[in-house]
Amino acid sequence: MRAEKLVVIGQGYVGLPLAVRAVEAGFDVVGLDVDASRIKRLSTGESFVEDISSARLGAALATRRYLPSTDYADAQGFDICVISVPTPLRDGAPDLSYVEQAGSALAPYLRPGCTVILESTTYPGTTEELLRPLLETASGLQSPGDFHLGYSPERIDPGNAIWRLENTPKVVSGVDSASLARVDDFYQRIVERTVPVDSTRVAELTKLIENTFRQVNIALINELAVLSNELKINVWQAIDAASTKPFGFMPFRPGPGVGGHCLPIDPCYLSWQVKRTLGRQFRFVELANDVNHGMPEHVVQRLMVGLNERGRALKGSRLLLIGLAYKRNTGDMRDSPAVDVATRLRGLGAEVRAVEPHAELHHIPAGVTVVNLTEHEVRAADAVVVVTDHDSLDYELLVRSARYVFDTRNRCSGRNVEHL
Fold first, then answer.
1. DSSP code string of 109-134
2. Is 114 a catalytic residue?
3. How many angstroms separate the CA atoms of 48 and 375, rounded?
4. Distance CA 288, CA 297 (A)
5. Does pTM surpass 0.85?
């Protein structure tokens, strides 16, 4: 009996872990991506995703059941296809061009009985209103009936060693009961637990609820941090104290803003659709976006004040930023608030150097010098700014050797340390 053929469109932070896991589960997998340099690296066993080691990628390649490719002809004869391409914002509106391109390129290879699953984050209705007509028109097939179609929101948390693809519950849906059964059967072979819901719209909304919840609560704590500083109250200690309550409270902590492929984008999809469909504002989301988007500027203003109090102007100062990725222990710099902070500081005339052990050099913003964390670099800086608190870094060195530390993550403590 032949192995089922799976095509995963998009080989980034979402698609690559799924492709490798599917190989391990016994599928023949084609990993498609339009980025030729990315496919070349994958073909040689070099992983650029922290959650998939090069050794694990190499093991998948060694089975000869994983084929990284840029050629959609390699999708010929597929049984299941998962679309996991980016869905960015353009001028405040969802940009589904990558989904459209993937669907158009895949459609000629649809055949009766196959299954297509969308994983990309999007607004409710995308699977049935955008992807389905595109696939049907180009293939001449219909769903329901000729092929199965479903939606399953990705829940990848880069760098999380506890909750991985395999043990994170997977929400699954289909355009009809037969599609749901096929989608559920597929993911049951990939993850430990599936959570079926009634429709693709429910599944699409589920993803947006998850990240809107985080965006709103992070904004609440960020605004509270700004106000608590002016009130001379230690918000970090207050959050820790509140966290001892065993019910009715979930801790969120302040930071320099939000970044990555979810929080700055997903809630905007929901507010965009509410405005488009209902003609109303989603006020919580819009307020949360305003607060979180304003945090990098707040960090810069706090740093400027801190330098002034120490007799230094921001212009001409030598600053050492700790971390540029949007998230601890990853190299992912998509929409990173740290990059925003660095760009603003450079625009105000500061010399910006950065310690970033995870991100690749070609992702570092222009004008920022990447350095190793050494005592010389710390002592030479007029201020050290902890923006992303990677665990591998020596924070005792910062406290011991820095003249002034502005810590947005509450990682350091000492007389020379000021917290967000």
1. G--TT-EEEE-S---TTHIIIIIHHH
2. no
3. 30
4. 15
5. yes
Q: Which amino acid, one-letter code, is at 339? A: V
DSSP states along 327-380: STT----TT-HHHHHHHHHHHTT-EEEEE-SSS-GGGSPTTPEE----HHHHHH
Pick the closest to residue 57 from 23, 87, 106 (CA basis).
23
Q: Which residues contact 189 (CB under 8 A, 6 or more apart)?
A: 25, 26, 27
In whole angstroms, what separates CA 87 from the centre of its chain?
Answer: 11
pLDDT tens string, the chain, 420 residues long: the values are 678 999 999 999 999 999 999 999 999 999 999 999 999 999 999 998 888 999 999 999 999 999 999 999 999 999 999 999 998 878 777 889 999 999 999 999 999 999 999 999 898 999 999 999 999 999 999 999 999 999 999 998 888 889 999 999 999 999 999 999 999 999 999 999 999 999 999 999 999 999 889 999 999 999 999 999 999 999 999 999 999 999 999 999 999 988 766 666 767 777 778 778 888 888 888 888 889 999 999 999 999 999 999 999 999 999 999 999 998 988 888 889 999 999 999 999 999 999 999 887 777 888 999 999 999 999 999 999 999 999 999 999 999 999 999 999 999 999 999 999
Residue 89 pairs in a beta bridge with 94
Q: CA 79, CA 89: separation in Å to the nearest integer?
A: 31
Catalytic-labelled residue, pool 81, 114, 262, 268: 262
